[in-house]
Amino acid sequence: MRNTPLRLCLVGAGIAHSPSPVLHQAAMQSTGIEGTYVLRDVSSPDLDHLIAELRAGRYTGCNVTTPYKAAMAAACDRLEGDAETLGVVNTIAVRGGRLVGTTTDTDGFELALSRVRMWPRQGATALVLGAGGAAASVALALTRVPLLRLRIAARKPEAAEHLARRLRGSGDVETIAWDASSIAKESAHSAIVVNATTVGLDALPFDPRAVPTGCSVVDIRYRPRPVDVVTAAIESGHRAEDGLEMLLQQGLLSFATWTGVSAPAAGVRSALLRAVEA
């Protein structure tokens, strides 16, 4: 049992409605661990001050979300596991004033899809939309299937290419153009398409209703529910999943990173569902 309460936070921008505090408070309650989890909605100029607070011991650790996953990784004294591969973090533990960063998004994505039996089979093909921190973790997870082919499309071609270069040692990973024609052509041969951006149907050059029979669609967004991409895919007869289970799984892995304790998923899942559907 810990001698001191946990002091945790989520670092990001535009996070006022994040359900992460509910997730982690439920995890603490279910494991008998005392602590707090607060939101730190910061602007880029204030990020250095937040990093100094972490080093000074104000927090036991933190989660990191958009748009600071790469910037916070660069501030860490050590990166572990997938964070070292990708150069992004979603979890930081403070150990003796040193910041140790990792990402639980990669395993969280696999666990979420495996739970609903949507994890692709070996030799499948996949398309990832987006090239930010979450997209990087999704793409890395998919390379471990292993896939026959992974394609990445992003609004910023240089970001897609940067991610593809990081992953090319893991298989056939290339980029395609961010336009409806290129994405439609690639999705026609894909077993799974993942929207790992922050935008929905109105801003995506992708129509989930047009993917072939047997293609699964995932959107890592979980609000507003129902997620429009997921709804369109399901109404067209495709298997589809939003990002709520991924949020849960990555959060539980973060909690275990800070505490060494695995919180029971069922109770935390129920609390999370109530929070996002309120």
What is the topology?
Layout: E1 6-12, H1 20-31, E2 35-41, H2 47-55, E3 61-64, H3 69-75, E4 78-79, H4 82-86, E5 91-95, E6 98-102, H5 105-115, E7 125-129, H6 133-143, E8 149-153, H7 157-167, E9 173-175, H8 180-187, E10 192-195, E11 216-219, H9 228-235, E12 240-241, H10 244-259, H11 265-277
Helix pairs in contact: 1-10, 1-11, 5-6, 5-10, 10-11
Structure description:
With 278 residues, the chain is of the alpha/beta class. It has two domains: 6-104 and 247-277, Rossmann fold, CATH 3.40.50; 119-238, NAD(P)-binding Rossmann-like Domain (Rossmann fold). Helix content is 40%, strand content 19%. The protein contains eleven helices and twelve strands. It has a six-stranded mixed sheet with strand order 2-1-3-5-6-4, sandwiched between helices. It has a six-stranded parallel sheet with strand order 9-8-7-10-11-12, sandwiched between helices. The longest helix has 16 residues, at 244-259. The chain is globular. The model has no long low-confidence stretch (mean pLDDT 96).
